[in-house]
Structure formats: structure tokens, C-alpha cells
Amino acid sequence: MSVQIVLLTHERELDRASNTGQLALRAFPELCRRVIWSRTRPEAALLAMLESGQASLLFPAESEACAAPAPASRLAAGRDPWAAEPATQAAETCEPDTIVILDATWQEARKMLRQSPYLRTAARRSLTQPQASRFTQRRNQIPGGLCTLECIIALFDAANLKAEAARLSDDFARWEQAARG
């Protein structure tokens, strides 16, 4: 599996020293790119990929109930509005694709999802292999929540990009160590 990552970045993340997405952007610019999130004016190329199904949004399935209202089509069809979308797949089993990651705090990411119709209706993926986060730079993390870089590492690993995943894991460990002092 090949993978391309789009970091849909909240504007507040651009200047945060605790932003982990920057590590992936520096290490693998050929696999990762950044798009600044806009609620009302999304990047045309990103919008087209999401609408056509060429890209999917990485977001935890169990967070959907608190993160975003169900699309109107699900309500009209009489389906459970909080059940996982039929298009939601485990990241480890998907075909080659572009994956959009909300690069923000968990609170900001939920807000981005809730305020962006184009994200609420996008096909979704979630990581199925639970792992504890190593990220210690921010408070108020959700239980089981991973930082942006940990998600990218898991996606690279699932895409059989083992050397790239290992490099990011090493970079992350060094970055965390330096931040601790």
C-alpha cells in the first residue's frame, strides 16, 4: 500500500512548538503535505479528493458521536445517525489512498469536524490497533488519543513503509526527549 498524508492544519498549530506534524513534513515532504484548514473556503484540490472518495479522513470511530452530527442522508434513510459510516474502514486494510489528518488539539479537531460540512461527509478511517500515546507535550488529551505524528507512524507502518515509520519514531523520541529538558 502506498500512502499520501494531508495534514489539515488548524491555524493555531502553525506556531506551536508542540506540533508534531512538522516532524513528518520535514522528514518526508514527498509523502506529506500541509493544507491550512478553512471552514468556509477549503482548498479546491482537497475538497475534490474528499468528494470523489480519493481521500479519506482519519478520525476515531468512537468519537463520532461527540464530534459531528450525522449527514442528512443518513437520517433520511432511517439509519442510526451515530453509527459508524459505511465508508469507514480500518486504516490497516485500505487500498492505496490519500489520508487527511486533522492537525490540531483534540478540542480543535472536533470543532473543525463539527464546523466543516465537507469533513462531516467525508469517508472516514480509523486506526484499529490500540496503542498508548507517547506524547507528553500537551494536557487534556483524550484517552487512547494519538498525536498527529503517532497517527502518521501507524499509517506508514500499515502501508509497509517500515523504514519511514522507524525514522519518524526515532525523530519523535528525540524530539520528546529534547522537550523534556
From TrEMBL:
InterPro entries registered for this protein in UniProt = DTW, DTWD2/TAPT
**KW Cell cycle (keyword) present:** no
**Which domain of life does this protein belong to?**
Bacteria
Question: Can the keyword Cell cycle be found in this entry's annotation?
Answer: no
**Domain DTW: start-end pairs:** 1-181
Which GO BP terms, alphabetically?
Answer: tRNA processing
What are its E.C. numbers?
2.5.1.25
Molecular-function GO terms, alphabetical: tRNA-uridine aminocarboxypropyltransferase activity
Q: Which UniProt keywords apply?
A: S-adenosyl-L-methionine, Transferase, tRNA processing
Q: Per the record, a Pfam family?
A: DTW
Q: What class of enzyme is it?
A: transferase
Q: Which family does it belong to?
A: Belongs to the TDD superfamily. DTWD2 family.
Q: What is this protein called?
A: tRNA-uridine aminocarboxypropyltransferase
Q: Which organism is it from?
A: Shewanella salipaludis
